[in-house]
Design a protein that fits this description.
Blueprint: E1 3-5, E2 11-13, H1 31-55, E3 61-65, E4 71-75, H2 78-92, H3 96-99
Antiparallel strand pairs: 1-2, 3-4
Keywords: DNA-binding, Nucleus, Transcription, Transcription regulation
Subcellular location: Nucleus
GO molecular function: protein dimerization activity; RNA polymerase II transcription regulatory region sequence-specific DNA binding
Length: 103
């Protein structure tokens, strides 16, 4: 981002963009591309959960299910990991017929 000086002594930001462009959020039709995107975004989400727990001293627990029904979880301490496993085993599995989770 470049700043330019004006005659009045103020600085204004030029409209040069260095970031990534926005993408349209919709289902990815290509199975391979969808799986690659899921893996990358899942890893990014897990990293963000870890960073949040460290930077803010927060208790964080995260559960992610893939389209194939695989479970991915993160908890920043053993208590929350046990709580997540309990929740998964007793609440989600007992009501999986209501949630229609893939098996």
């Amino acid at each position: 981002m470049a700043f330019t000086s004006q005659e009045s002594g103020e600085y204004s930001c030029s409209s040069r963009r260095n970031g990534r462009g926005k993408i349209e959020i919709k289902r990815i039709e290509n199975t391979t591309s969808r799986q690659v995107t899921f893996c990358k975004r899942r890893n990014g989400l897990l990293k963000k959960a870890y960073e949040l727990s460290v930077l803010c001293d927060a208790e964080v627990s995260l559960i992610v299910f893939s389209s194939r029904g695989r479970l991915y979880e993160y908890a920043n301490n053993s208590f929350y990991r046990q709580q997540t496993q309990f929740y998964f085993q007793h609440v989600i599995l007992s009501s999986s017929h209501l949630l229609k989770l893939p098996k």
